[in-house]
């Protein structure tokens, strides 16, 4: 079989050196990659490096090998175009349809999915001109990944850092897997909770659960690849932030509730994939509880935590907002799931069986998605991203 053809566009930012790692991941995973840098990108990484790593000649001009019409053919034959880093200048040129070098010509001739991974200073990213250019590209169907927050050039820190190359690769892999399917979540804001809350008993102990957060992260990465603006509210996962998502870190159920309600205020979809503790200790002990010889420990009194899923379902930001819940059950899985769907008032409920060596911490999942209209969609055992895609398929259909 022919290898998937990927065009890696590289524009002139200091983060251009990180694109070498993205190129390595793409080539080693079986993709045929053609690197198309801008002239300014070659000030950071030379043409010889790109040619050696990709196995293809590198040019910035439309005038080289004119008989092969490269300014048309490269884009026509591509299965994916990814621009990393995409500077503010490149986003502006792409949004306005300029074609003054080989990369911008390629973007105009490509009829395949296009992914932009921006990298620039915070002020440039937040400028209204850049935000309008990003909105234009997204409206046309391009996937523009939200930049990461972290150290920038010099001593500056903020939003604008190129996402981790491994995370960009995951977005590219998911976009390629969808083929010619349009990014159906473009223009949508989705909020996803992930992980498991921990309710402190004293400075060293807590009441928690086994949730790893991997399913919530799969939902976030898949939503990014389908064009959504993603807010991920995580609790105690320890996982690297998924590329393109705005991540809010929380610990307890109360903290997670506050973050979810804030983010949900302008969200089209809220997916509560986090395992929120139903109870928390009634009293927090400020000093470590000591074990005393010959004495049994005092009982731990518990109080109920807020029911975030029911609250979000009952107090939706708009009537059209879609709410998705998760139900982890150990017995009478479907019966308990149907009752929970009715009680919580959400649109969709993903029901799965959990326990020792089941679901928690695994890379795979098996579930049934129950809908408020009575339909049921079974998802066979497989990668968690497959379940994520099924959830987004059902959500997308309901978004119209």
Provide structural commentary.
By secondary structure, this protein is an alpha/beta fold. The chain is 33% helix and 26% strand. Helix 4 crosses helix 7 and helix 9 (214-225) packs across helix 13 (384-399). The model has no long low-confidence stretch (mean pLDDT 91).
Integer average pLDDT? 91
Taking Cα atoms only, what radius of gyration do you get, to the nearest Å? 24 Å
Query: Terminal Cα separation, in Å?
Result: 36 Å
* Net shape: globular
Point out poorly predicted stretches: none
Percent of residues in beta strands: 25-35%
Query: What percent of the residues sit in helical stretches (DSSP H or I)?
Result: 25-40%
Tell me the total number of β-strands.
19
The SS-based structural class is alpha/beta
Arrangement of strands in the largest sheet: 12-11-8-13-16-17-18-19
- DSSP helical segment count: 13
Main β-sheet: number of strands, strand sense, barrel status?
A: 8 strands, mixed
Short summary:
By secondary structure, the protein is an alpha/beta fold. Helices cover 33% and strands 26% of the residues.
């Amino acid at each position: 079989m022919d290898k998937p053809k990927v065009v890696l566009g590289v524009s002139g930012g200091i983060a251009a050196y990180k694109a070498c790692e993205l190129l390595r991941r793409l080539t080693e995973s079986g993709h045929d990659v053609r690197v198309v840098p801008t002239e300014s990108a070659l000030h950071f990484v030379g043409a010889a490096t790109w040619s050696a790593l990709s196995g293809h000649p590198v040019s910035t001009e439309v005038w080289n090998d004119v008989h092969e019409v490269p300014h048309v053919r490269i884009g026509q034959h591509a299965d994916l175009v990814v621009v990393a880093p995409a500077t503010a200048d490149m986003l502006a040129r792409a949004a306005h349809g300029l074609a003054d070098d080989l990369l911008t010509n390629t973007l105009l001739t490509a009829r395949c999915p296009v992914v932009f991974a921006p990298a620039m200073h915070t002020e440039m990213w937040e400028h209204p001109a850049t935000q309008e250019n990003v909105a234009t590209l997204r409206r046309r169907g391009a996937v523009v990944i939200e930049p990461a927050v972290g150290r920038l050039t010099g001593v500056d820190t903020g939003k604008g850092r190129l996402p981790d190359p491994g995370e960009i690769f995951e977005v590219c892999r998911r976009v390629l897997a969808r083929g010619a399917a349009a990014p159906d979540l473009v223009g949508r804001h989705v909020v996803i909770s992930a992980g498991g809350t921990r309710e402190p008993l004293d400075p060293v102990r807590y009441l928690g659960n086994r949730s790893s957060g991997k399913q919530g992260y799969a939902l976030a990465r898949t939503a990014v690849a389908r064009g959504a603006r993603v807010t991920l509210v995580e609790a105690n996962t320890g996982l690297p932030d998924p590329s393109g998502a705005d991540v809010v870190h929380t610990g307890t159920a109360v903290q997670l509730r506050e973050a979810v309600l804030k983010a949900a205020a302008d969200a089209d979809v809220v997916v509560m994939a986090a395992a929120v503790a139903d109870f928390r200790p009634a009293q927090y002990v400020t000093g470590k509880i000591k074990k005393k010889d010959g004495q049994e420990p005092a009982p731990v009194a518990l109080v109920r935590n807020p029911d975030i899923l029911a609250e979000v379902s009952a107090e939706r930001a708009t009537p059209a907002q879609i709410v998705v819940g998760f139900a982890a059950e150990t017995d009478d899985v479907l019966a308990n799931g149907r009752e929970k769907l009715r009680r919580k008032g959400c649109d969709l409920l993903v029901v799965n069986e959990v326990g020792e060596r089941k679901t928690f911490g695994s890379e795979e999942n098996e579930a049934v998605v129950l809908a408020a209209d009575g339909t049921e969609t079974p998802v066979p055992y497989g990668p968690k991203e497959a379940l994520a895609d099924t959830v987004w398929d059902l959500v997308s259909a309901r978004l119209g």
